[in-house]
TrEMBL record:
Database matches in Pfam families: Peptidase_S10
Provenance organism: Granulicella mallensis
Entry's Gene Ontology molecular function annotations: serine-type carboxypeptidase activity
Protein name (database record): Carboxypeptidase C (Cathepsin A)
Signal peptide coordinates: none
Positions of the UniProt region annotated as Disordered: 1-28
InterPro entries in the record: AB_hydrolase_fold, Peptidase_S10, Ser_caboxypep_ser_AS
SUPFAM superfamilies for the chain: alpha/beta-Hydrolases
Domain of life: Bacteria
Phylogenetic lineage: Bacteria, Pseudomonadati, Acidobacteriota, Terriglobia, Terriglobales
Protease found in the keyword field: yes
Length: 550
């Protein structure tokens, strides 16, 4: 049994029951439990931390700068006793009241009338004083909600707001970003999203504390304890979901969660916490490019870290060659799990096998033979991203290595610039979201909308063993407790930040009775494969099918 999380202090002021205790147009294929398994060796967490949707170079903000951003002061020692005084409540301008606007879109030949709302869920301590405010954006179809499902969506980081999933994937409005040729100066034009999930579920997009317009109302030390760590993050976001359901009288609705990247880590833990601690059932869990399992071992001792990256690197090469198909990827995965893994386990004790492996990896990836030889067939992500595009003077994105930018420091031995996808998309999404919230909806705020918060990244508790543990134990317990709960995992083949093979190996390790409740679907593209229009229809179909049947 995994350690049970404590009920969060925010629930003290709440009512309600709380438990104690095509290379075709869409070359996709679902993956079910597989018979071949692999033993996972002891983990080294830092080797495969998923970096998506967190700035790759966090600015080194000093504590005074952080406090100035928060509007707070550090707790001062009492002159009489020398003991720290109780942190003072942070006084900030109040956020606007919830604001709604009626909207209409045309999707799949149907006209949808819905209400877009920007609002706030307030968090409080046991003594009733406010601790934080989580800002949400919801889209609710007009009419009777009795049989209407509701989806709660969050991105990752930690430190990312939900703008990526909202305007890039499943919200009713869409802005173009994240693909080759996109730039920060592209106009933030919102259009109707043909891939929205609004036609089969209402949607609520949550911005964790410190992202979007959401904010802490306590000082830095208290914020760390309440919000900026893996356990407290799960607790308060679960509380926000509980409060939204009660506030909107939607507790009887079918409920679904959608998490991307680190949001894929959050998803199983929030599902389990809602089930076991707050007494709220979840019908389905959608994980987009999830960071699930850090337990993949030391690359000096285990083949698993290299097994995870090789198929993604190969997929990028196949796409450039016009040969990326499900059949081709099946062959790649079979080699990866078989001969490649066994050769790495043997190490240099079998030179003939090693040389054959290096030759095969060279052919699979299209890389320079000397580069593959010097790496021993073990392809390190950052080295690969510089090597593959070096002759063109460009650098590839860790989220999709085929999306590139000119390398401003081509003679450096390491990458000094930001990631091409994050750099090109941040301004477009931020501008679109600010205009939508403050002008279209009319929820006024002069505060900064923070799509990717370096402050959250700096304050986050990265030493917490809960992160190293991963969320697979919670995934196991959640689906074991509810045989009707289905988990759908989506990956882009080219993603090197959270490679799809990590989820395949994780599913391989599940007991057969649990593995049948998890399906994996792979798409052409990278971490944000949903930005490719050719993937939209199939993603919509798979999600709609899941909601209809679970």
């Amino acid at each position: 049994m995994s350690p049970r999380l404590k009920p969060p202090p925010f629930l003290s002021s709440m009512s309600g029951p709380i438990s104690e205790a095509k290379a075709t147009a869409n070359p996709l294929h679902p993956r079910t439990a597989r018979s071949n398994t692999i033993t996972i060796s002891p983990m080294v967490f830092k080797r495969f931390t998923c970096t998506v949707l967190l700035p790759l170079s966090l600015s080194a903000l000093g504590s005074s700068a952080l406090l100035a951003q928060r509007g707070g002061q550090p707790p001062q020692a009492s002159p009489a006793t020398g003991t720290p005084a109780k942190p003072a409540e942070i006084k900030l301008e109040p956020l606007s009241p919830d604001k709604s606007v009626a909207q209409t879109i045309s999707v799949h030949g149907k006209t949808l009338h819905y209400t877009a709302t920007v609002g706030t869920i307030k968090l409080t301590a046991p003594d009733g004083h406010p601790t934080g405010e989580v800002v949400f954006t919801s889209y609710i179809l007009d009419g009777d909600h009795t049989n209407r499902p509701v989806l709660f969506a969050f991105n990752g980081g930690p430190g990312a707001a939900s703008g990526y999933l909202n305007f890039g994937a499943v919200g009713p409005k869409h802005v173009i970003f994240g693909n080759a040729g996109n730039s920060p100066s592209d106009p933030p034009t919102l259009t109707d999203n043909p891939g929205t999930w609004l036609d089969f579920t209402d949607e609520v997009f949550l911005d964790p504390i410190g992202t979007g317009y959401s904010r802490s109302l306590v000082d830095e030390a208290e914020s760390r304890k309440l919000f900026y760590g893996p356990t407290q993050d799960v607790e308060y976001l679960s509380t926000v979901i509980y409060k939204w359901l009660t506030k909107n009288e939607r507790m009887p609705s079918k409920k679904y969660l959608l998490g991307e990247s680190y949001g894929g880590y959050r998803g199983p833990r929030i599902t389990h916490y809602l089930q076991a601690d707050l007494g709220v059932g979840v019908n389905g869990l959608f994980l987009v490019s999830p960071y699930l399992n850090p337990s993949f071992g030391d690359g000096n001792l285990s083949p698993v870290p290299w097994m995870i990256t090789l198929p993604a690197i190969t997929a990028a090469h196949l796409e450039n060659e016009g040969k990326l198909t499900p059949e081709a990827m099946k062959d790649v995965i079979a080699y990866d799990e078989g001969e490649y893994a066994s050769t790495l386990i043997k190490g240099p004790s079998d030179p003939a096998a090693t040389n054959a492996m290096i030759q095969h990896v060279t052919e699979m990836t299209g890389l320079d033979p000397e580069f593959v030889k010097h790496s021993g067939g073990r392809l390190e992500t950052r080295a690969f991203l510089r090597e593959i595009h070096r002759e063109n003077g460009t650098i590839g994105s860790v989220y999709d290595s085929n999306v590139t930018d000119p390398d401003p420091f081509p003679y450096s031995s390491f990458q000094q610039s930001g990631d091409p996808i994050l750099e090109s998309g941040k301004a477009t999404i931020t501008e679109a979201m600010v205009n939508f919230v403050t002008v279209t909806v009319g929820w006024k705020s002069e505060a900064r909308y923070d799509l990717l918060s370096s402050e959250v990244g700096n304050l986050w508790d990265r030493q917490n063993r809960e992160t190293e543990r991963g969320s697979v134990p919670d995934l196991r317990e959640a689906i074991a407790a509810d045989p009707k709960l289905h988990v759908v995992v989506f990956h882009g083949w080219n993603d090197l930040s959270c490679p799809f093979m990590g989820s395949i190996l994780t599913q391989n390790e599940l007991p057969p009775t649990l593995a049948k409740q998890v399906s994996i679907h792979e798409f052409p593209g990278g971490h944000m494969f949903y930005t490719r229009p050719t993937n939209s229809d199939e993603l919509h179909h798979l999600a709609e099918q899941t909601v209809a049947s679970h």
